[in-house]
Amino acid sequence: MLSKKRQFITWLVGLIMIPLLFFVVFYLTAPAGLFSEPSFYVFIFVGALVALFPIEVRGATLFLIASVSISVFLAYGLFAEMVVTMIATTVVMKQMRITREESYRFPMNILLFQIISILSAEIYYLVNPILLNPLNYPYNILSLTVYLVASITLNRLFLYVLATEWQKKVYGKIINFEYIFSLFSVFYAIPIALMILHLRNIYSTFGIIIAAFPLIGISIIFKLYFSSDSQNRYLYKVNGLAIKLNEQQNVKKIIELYLSSWNNIFPVDTIYYCIIREDQKIEKSMVYHNGHIVECKESLDPISSHVILEEYWFKSDMIVYKSFEEWPEIIHSVIDYPAESMLIFPIKRAESVIGFIGITDPKRKAFSKNMLFVMPVLHNFLNNALANAYNFEELKINSRTDHLTGLSNLRAFEQNINKYNQTRPDNRISIIIIDLDYFKDVNDSFGHQAGNELLKQISILLSTFVYEQEKLARYGGEEFIFFVPNKTPDEIIELAESIREKIEKTAFNTHNYLDDRELVTVNITASIGVATYPDQCSSIKELMMLADRAMYVGSKQNGRNKVATINEGDIINERQAILEPDKTY
User: Fold this and answer.
1) Are residues 289 and 383 in the same domain?
2) How confident is the model over 212-267, as pLDDT tens digits?
3) pLDDT > 70: what percent of the chain?
4) CA angle 318, 323, 329 (to 5 degrees)
5) C-beta of residue 162 within 8 angstroms of C-beta of residue 40
6) Which domain holds residue 158?
7) Contacts of 579 (CB under 8 A, 6+ apart)
8) Are 193 and 207 spatial neighbours (Cβ–Cβ below 8 Å)?
9) Residues 382 and 495 in one domain
10) Mean pLDDT, range 530-550, rounded to an integer
């Protein structure tokens, strides 16, 4: 978007130069009685009619006005050609649905075409006396070819300079498909222009209208062809992105790739990624704008407060809004940037809507039929990729998580401790193993469901002792295991004693599932074993075994509700361990 200052300068220069150039060219080139010639107005009408069929060629908008421009130039001179081109250009730009913020493009393009018309005419007047006319036709075809090629080339050069130097945006290569396609117009534009003049000489103004039919027919054919080509190119790019999406197994990375890739396929302004939380509130999670993704985590109103989203929630289908006036008023709070057109796509999981993608553009009717046909295809690929990623993440979590308590399982715990030891081999590593005393009595007295409730509550209590790199896991049954780095053996014993005291002093509430689910209070104690590497053992593998032996032999077999430790190499028999007296608690 051009800055406000440059927009003002563009308008100022246009308002001064456009009428000035018209006046000068009219004074120098306009034939007498031009405005009383019916054919002149028919030329204007035909030019405007052709402009109603703009052709989208790989992101660029072209219109086949060259034949009308050449014929009116040869019939009435430069001024008449400038008038016809200006009106046709205005019609095309209206077709492009230019917004108020982009209205500066009207004076910029009209002035650009004026300058191109003047320079192309000067080139024609310069070469026409020099170039041979091998066909002895009233109009020199070689001179007209030079005129048309000069006009096309100058247009391309001026647009490149305006885009890169004035608008400060990427324009691409000067010589590209659009330029080559425009040069191709030499083969039909000049013959049609000469046909228009010939029929005009025979049938007057009616001859111009007759000659306009093949020109409009060619415009429609090209429009349909390039519409199909555009759709195929969209689908090709969409398939490429779909492959990349399916290669990802992380939900966040899929969303980021999806948002950042849109502008490589479809010309859009802003994309919003919102999720619908379990409490039915909308959370605006990411916004893509001007090539950047911003994470916002902004909590909005409940889904039921947004009419547009509520409709979307139940329909689970694409919603299209062509202009700002069509939006329900309450949706305005979701939008951060000026917009007219809006699309909403559902994000689904197991046939339920869990979020949505909102796409906005400052232009009215910004989304073409081809885009509206292909965009849902891309979004289906997103939903499939997200479904795979969600399933993968769930599988990954389930393979590393205890389903009852939500803590890590033993496999994940061992991976964490080994990874830590590999990256920090010189650091102390301590293990605390916690075994609940007489837990079987809870199951026998109140039912296994009561025991499960107790395990959940104790896992929450133990989690309050976990900080930073420390890890807590369910060791199995009623046992828990705690990994703590960078603490001395005495500090670990002190921490373990704090855990033991907390469990002992806490009254846990559960239900008696064997007797009408009566609420009961359960008090329980824990036997705890601790060990520290390398102070008490020589390997990580031995560390867990040592802590486990300390818990069983030092605590369980010595009255329970204790914290115990044991050194590697101490002799242990089935009933009793030889423990240092000051190391048993």
Assistant:
1) yes
2) 887 788 778 877 777 777 778 888 888 898 899 888 888 889 988 988 888 788 87
3) 88
4) 85
5) no
6) 4-212
7) 553, 554, 564, 565, 566, 570
8) no
9) no
10) 88
